[in-house]
């Protein structure tokens, strides 16, 4: 009695190409949709030359919008020591391991 390994291509009954085909179609439509949305004619940048800018600094633009622009408080030159015990140092820092 001989065992047949695999059989011929005609006798194989594989189904399952449909989910792969559906996934490929969804992926292609998704990529095309992103390309159309991102690079369509309605999505062109409106670049203005520097001469047409209304304000030359961010502060001027903020003041024109009604914001109150104040400088930040300077940091203390010397920071105080943090509360709590100081970290312990090893007893023999020079010993090789």
TrEMBL record:
This is Uncharacterized protein. The chain crosses the membrane at residues 20-37. Residues 45-59 have a biased composition (Polar residues). Residues 77-97 have a biased composition (Pro residues). Residues 41-97 are annotated as: Disordered. Keywords: Membrane, Transmembrane, Transmembrane helix.
């Amino acid at each position: 009695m001989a065992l047949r390994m695999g059989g011929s291509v005609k006798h194989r009954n594989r189904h399952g190409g449909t989910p792969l085909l559906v996934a490929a179609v969804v992926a292609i439509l998704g990529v095309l949709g992103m390309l159309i949305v991102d690079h369509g004619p309605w999505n062109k940048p409106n670049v203005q030359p520097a001469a047409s800018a209304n304000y030359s600094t961010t502060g001027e633009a903020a003041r024109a919008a009604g914001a109150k622009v104040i400088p930040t408080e300077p940091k203390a030159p010397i920071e105080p020591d943090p509360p709590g015990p100081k970290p312990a140092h090893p007893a023999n820092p020079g010993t090789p391991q």
